[in-house]
Amino acid sequence: MQRALIIAPNWIGDALMAQPLFILLKKLHPRIILDAIAPNWVAPILEQMPEINHVYPTQLAHKKLQLRQRWQLAQTLRAADYDAAFILPNSAKSALIPWLAQIRLRIGYHGEHRYGLINVRHPNPRKNAQRPPMVRHYAALAYAPHAGLPAELPVPRITLDQPKAAQALQRFRLTVQAPLIAFCPGAEYGAAKRWPVEHFATLAQLIAPAFPYAQIITLGAAQDALLGARITEQAPQVRNLCGQTTLNEACALIASASVVVSNDSGLMHIAAALRRPLLALYGSSDPRHTPPLTDRARVQWLQLECSPCFARECPLGHLNCLRQLKPEHVFEQLREMLLTES
């Protein structure tokens, strides 16, 4: 196998958890060239992975077929003469481009009954507490169906040039002379993964007297700007940068952070891949399935009877899995991490 195409996941965190697959493919096929198709909001992360040669950013919308756009991209890809395609999303439409491009081997999970679209099919694991971690789920595609995986897998890692971090700090008037604490209050999947904004605000108020010189910022996409604004209303010392940075700038600021406090989100996985001290807050999701893959993370998960439910909104209406995760407890963990870093 000399050239392969990756159909990347639609989420930043999932794209990072797919990186061990790319590392394994390079190890198993030392001369292989890996290109990727990714949504334009995920492409910048793949572009920072040394295993990926080229990324085709797309504007394909979620839950839309857009057959004409897929056909046009497939015609472009035919000339690249790919030996194989690894289709990481489970949807039928994600397998259309490799099929239209006439790529001989099309590898993925059964997904939405993708018979014909995928010709090397792995069995889908059940969605329960026993399903494998996401990194192992993706990494299995490097091998034949039902083949075993190594006990130890590579972990996601990205690096940033120091000048990029310095430029981001300068643009947002932040300094390396004082601790930088990044709050990531968003989670695109849904509200059931978001620690309440009042808890973030209370955490900021607890930080202020203990670390008076700390710089606290919020990071996230444009749709998280309201969450950031609600935090700053209650804790004016917090600077709301949600929606004001590019993804690359957000990565650069995270790379400079003394501690990152984040929901289970793409930015959490970026912080883990950058090996920053990280407090990862879990509610409706399961840290056994999508953990932050770094020894510098501390996971906060109450593991209530109703959690994980994997729902977008709390099906019981109370969100106790996150509301009962008190800011005072998170602050004690954050305090220890800051003192260790200093």
TrEMBL record:
GO cellular component assignments = cytosol
From the Swiss-Prot or TrEMBL record, what is one GO molecular function term?
ADP-heptose-lipopolysaccharide heptosyltransferase activity
Q: Where is the signal peptide?
A: none
- The enzyme's first-digit EC class, named in words, is transferase
| Superkingdom, taxonomy of origin | Bacteria
Single Gene Ontology BP annotation: lipopolysaccharide core region biosynthetic process
Keyword Transferase, does the record have it? yes
Please give the Pfam families that the UniProt record associates with this protein. Answer: Glyco_transf_9
Which keywords appear in this protein's UniProt record, sorted alphabetically? Glycosyltransferase, Transferase
Q: What is its EC number?
A: 2.4.99.24
From the UniProt record, list the reaction(s) this protein catalyses.
an L-alpha-D-Hep-(1->5)-[alpha-Kdo-(2->4)]-alpha-Kdo-(2->6)-lipid A + ADP-L-glycero-beta-D-manno-heptose = an L-alpha-D-Hep-(1->3)-L-alpha-D-Hep-(1->5)-[alpha-Kdo-(2->4)]-alpha-Kdo-(2->6)-lipid A + ADP + H(+)
Please give the family membership noted in the entry.
Belongs to the glycosyltransferase 9 family.
Extract the NCBIfam families matched here.
Answer: heptsyl_trn_II (TIGR02195)
* PANTHER family assigned to the protein according to its UniProt record, in alphabetical order: ADP-HEPTOSE--LPS HEPTOSYLTRANSFERASE 2 (PTHR30160:SF7), TETRAACYLDISACCHARIDE 4'-KINASE-RELATED (PTHR30160)
Q: What is this protein called?
A: lipopolysaccharide heptosyltransferase II
